């Protein structure tokens, strides 16, 4: 049975969907960095308050704060014997080293989800949103019943600047160069599993469930 794991994968690769599905079929909880941050702020922990100041002043959250908040969460889960899927952390080699030295983390596998750029571009460039109510759609996976209008309020659906092909290509380049060091780090530790995310989320999860 897989224990604490890390999910790595470019935007648009389906990481969130796969992690949620895996979490439903196991007792692993899905920990995204965004969620951990929001919880720390909500619970007004000392670190949460510090984080709130940084975020509100529009500054970049330094590694030391991110690490400390993740550590706080992992220690809490560890004391309750709860295993987790980390999604969105680590992002830098500093964070990976920190996690590696954290005894309570004890990462068993790192799952790298990959897909050819053309597939990611195709998926992301078909996303649409409603500027009035913020509802999101996808031309293939979640089309609006009113074609190019929002189902809630008939507003014309738009594409985010970020989801235009050129921006996607740029985001993928940044992601790939940032992630390469992490991939090498975990390859060296022999805990990296690379999976083609062109299979369905169900197939991927079934494959993961068979891992020791
Ligand atoms: Zn709407």
TrEMBL record:
Binding site for AMP: 33, 38, 59-61, 88-91, 95, 160, 171
Region spans: NMP: 32-61
InterPro entries attached to this UniProt entry: Adenyl_kin_sub, Adenylat/UMP-CMP_kin, Adenylat_kinase_CS, Adenylate_kinase_lid-dom, ADK_active_lid_dom_sf, P-loop_NTPase
Enzyme class of the recorded protein, top EC level: transferase
Keyword terms, alphabetized: ATP-binding, Cytoplasm, Kinase, Nucleotide biosynthesis, Nucleotide-binding, Transferase
Region of interest (LID), ranges: 126-163
Compartmental location: Cytoplasm
Record-annotated Adenylate kinase active site lid domain positions: 127-162
SUPFAM superfamilies: Microbial and mitochondrial ADK, insert 'zinc finger' domain, P-loop containing nucleoside triphosphate hydrolases
Self-association state and partner proteins as the record states: Monomer.
Protein name stated in the entry: Adenylate kinase
Protein species of origin: Mesomycoplasma molare
Gene: adk
């Amino acid at each position: 049975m897989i224990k604490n794991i890390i999910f790595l994968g470019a935007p648009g690769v389906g990481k969130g969907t796969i992690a949620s599905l895996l979490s439903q079929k196991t007792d692993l909880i899905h920990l995204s960095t965004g969620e951990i941050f929001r919880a720390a702020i909500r619970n007004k922990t000392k670190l949460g308050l510090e984080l709130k100041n940084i975020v509100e002043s529009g500054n970049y959250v330094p590694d030391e704060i991110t690490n400390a908040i993740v550590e706080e969460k992992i220690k809490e889960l560890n004391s309750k014997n709860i295993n987790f899927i980390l999604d969105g952390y680590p992002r830098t080699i500093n964070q990976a080293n920190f996690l590696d030295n954290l005894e309570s983390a004890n990462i068993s596998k790192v799952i790298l989800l990959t897909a050819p750029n053309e597939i990611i571009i195709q998926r992301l460039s078909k996303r649409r949103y409603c500027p009035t109510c913020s509802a999101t759609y996808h031309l293939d996976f979640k089309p609006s019943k009113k074609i190019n209008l929002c189902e809630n309020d008939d507003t014309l659906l738009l594409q985010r600047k970020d989801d235009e092909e050129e921006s996607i290509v740029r985001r993928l380049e940044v992601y790939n160069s940032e992630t390469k060091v992490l991939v090498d780090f975990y390859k060296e530790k022999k805990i990296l599993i690379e999976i083609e995310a062109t299979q369905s989320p169900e197939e991927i999860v079934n494959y993961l469930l068979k891992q020791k």
